[in-house]
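Before a colleague's protein record goes any further, I have to sign it off. Would you go through it and say whether the fold makes sense for this chain? Take the sequence as given and treat only the tokens as open to question. The record follows directly below this note.
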Amino acid sequence: MFGEKLKKLRIDNKMTQQELAKILKISSSTIGMYEQNRRSPDIETLKMIAEYFQCSTDYLLDKDDELIYKNFSHRMKELRAEKNITLEELAKVLNTTKSTLSRYENNLRTPNADFINQLAKYFNVSADYLLGNSDIKKPSPESDIPQKYTDKYKVTKKDIEQHDEVIKHAQAFMMDDEVGEEDKEKLVAVINKLYWDSKAKNKEKFGRKKKK
């Protein structure tokens, strides 16, 4: 999967997550989430990674991973049905053909990164949701969910909404210009961890673990 590919490329090039993050102009925590397959990069970041490591986006996305694209086909059909749009209509919007979309939906053709992100943008969902890495259609950028939490518990829409409210209130207290952006990011990361740790303890107490 993408995360394993990125981690291998980074280690092979003797780079830390912090060094790669600086080059890509993103946070090291985001690199960590990419490598753990808990978040997918947008198309621009994916292209930057491919260009830096001199590889193709197809290689990074691991086009041989059948399960990912089976999930993609299912999610694509589901989103199209929810929006009540036909293959012909969607093809016109995306500037492609009905037969191409049909092959995607029947898992007979593998979508490239451009198409995945184009489709995600049209349906207003994350690439993670389309690829089946998350059940949350569009989580907020700040909701970095610890893997140890997602390994044990299912993340619900209510969890995300409560998290966003906590972060929103916290950010309101950091509006002072004297607080640097780096410090704000660190504070948000601490609050984020405290929130999910608290959620885990609460769910452990009431025995609400993820269903297998």
About this structure: The longest helix spans residues 181-206. Residues 147-206 form one domain. The chain is about 65% helix and 0% strand.
